[in-house]
Write a structure and sequence with these properties.
Layout: E1 51-57, E2 72-78, H1 80-89, E3 97-106, E4 117-130, E5 138-143, H2 158-166, H3 181-186, H4 192-198
Antiparallel strand pairs: 1-2, 2-3, 3-4, 4-5
Length: 202
């Protein structure tokens, strides 16, 4: 399963970054992020110092039954500047990077008798980047376990059309971010498609 299918915490949520050789756009994040000449995005090593947006357990947008015995947590982070920008406008500022981290879950750990906890095992990471140069203004970048610079997922992938069709605000799954959905609601930035999906049925 492509990680961006889980960016509903969404992937994928994901601050402004300065683009190295490609652009002179100033950074608005705590760490300057770079896209190199080949269009690859550098791994944001400090993403766990960003604002934590939300976490979901065993999320799937498919009706298929999840794999038995396998539990995954999806954690989404946004740099402080991007988060504060959303609080003011109800949309993400240009240069936003939302970071999705997928971790394995376990039960019966230590004194835990019920429920699930997150483990040290990171199954995958992916960035959702807002930049006006991308088609549709957003792009997904999945990282390998070695955290080498990531290549943009082609825009004909279903993750893009899914976000366009179902995201609550600014093509991101703000409906899964409990601190931001009220913001988008009060600032009237909820998408028409989301409002239609959630409207009371006659």
């Amino acid at each position: 399963m492509r990680l961006s299918n889980a960016f509903g915490l969404g992937l994928m949520a994901l601050s402004s970054f300065a683009v190295g050789p490609v652009s002179a756009q100033p950074a608005a994040s705590d760490e300057v992020l770079h896209i190199d000449d080949a269009g690859k995005l550098a791994f944001p090593t400090n993403y766990r110092e960003w604002v934590f947006l939300s976490s979901g357990l065993d999320m799937s947008y498919s009706a298929d039954t999840p794999m038995a015995g396998q539990h995954l947590f999806n954690n989404v982070f946004a740099p402080r500047a991007a988060y504060e920008g959303f609080l003011k406008s109800g949309t993400w500022p240009d240069g936003t990077v939302l970071m999705l981290e997928v971790r394995a879950g376990k039960t019966n750990q230590s004194i835990l008798k019920h429920g699930e906890i997150q483990t040290e095992e990171i199954v995958g990471t992916e960035a959702h980047v807002k930049d006006s140069r991308f088609k549709g203004g957003w792009a997904f970048f999945p990282f390998d376990s070695d955290h080498k610079p990531a290549t943009e997922i082609p825009h004909d992938a279903t993750c893009y059309s899914c976000h366009q069709a179902h995201a609550a605000a600014d093509t991101t799954f703000v409906q899964f971010y409990p601190t931001l959905l009220p913001v988008a609601t009060s600032l009237h930035t909820l998408s028409a498609s989301y409002l239609a999906e959630t409207a009371p049925k006659p």
